[in-house]
Amino acid sequence: MKLNQIADNAGARKVRTRVGRGIGCTKGKTCGRGVKGQKSRTGVAINGFEGGQMPIYRRLPKRGFKNPNRVEYAELTIRRLQQAITGGKLDLAQVVNAESLKAAGVVHHAFAGLRLIGVGELSAKVTIEVVGATPGAIASVEKAGGAVTVTVPVVEAPAAKA
To answer: CA of 26: how far to CAs of 17, 33, 149, in Å?
Structure first.
């Protein structure tokens, strides 16, 4: 194989259709948009419009409540913690917290803190610092000889309106 012989597979790249190049070509004059009307022009935003009929997003009832001030926590299971310990990703001599788990690649986003959830078995002695933990998770860590420190979540207060 030579560098000057490398090429895409046939049909891997589609050639862009040039429109508006005269009536002699396929996409001339109206450029494939039909004739006249709102949709033949630019800046059209009528996705939810149903010809004057009540649109479906207004016909159907709304359910539930989306809390804009909801605080999200990263969840860590006992099983995932055990996998990280078995894989040698964590230093058990140090306190395991959100920053060390993020650095080890166990948790991707810490959000407002870390919650420990009791799913699985733990076989290593570990000291872990989390924002919240389930009673089963605390029991599982203490059964293995470790300790769980539950801290108060650090949540930024909403800005006061002036």
So the answer is: 10, 12, 71
